[in-house]
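User: For my dataset I need records formatted as: sequence, then structure tokens, nothing else. Please produce one.
Assistant:
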Amino acid sequence: MTNQQPITAISGARLIDGNGSSPTENSLLVIEGNTIAFVGKNHDYELPESATVIDASGLTLMPGLIDSHLHLQGLFTTESKELLVISPEVRLLRSSKDLLTLIDMGYT
């Protein structure tokens, strides 16, 4: 008995791989479980019938994009007065919770 991971495919998008090459039209990205298993042209990979396919035609896909700059201040609004009334300790605790939320959402 094999423990097969669920397969999800995102098909038809314009793919920007971040390696400096030209965008790939009509691309395919295959995810097995939590791992990207294939990225390339749609016709270069044969999907099993059990795969869940998401049609992304007309959209742009950028897998592995890293958000490398973020300011977490533990604030709930953009009003500067909140900085004056919320203690640094509370903002630190809020920022820690915000970081965990971002990690759970898949930010890298």
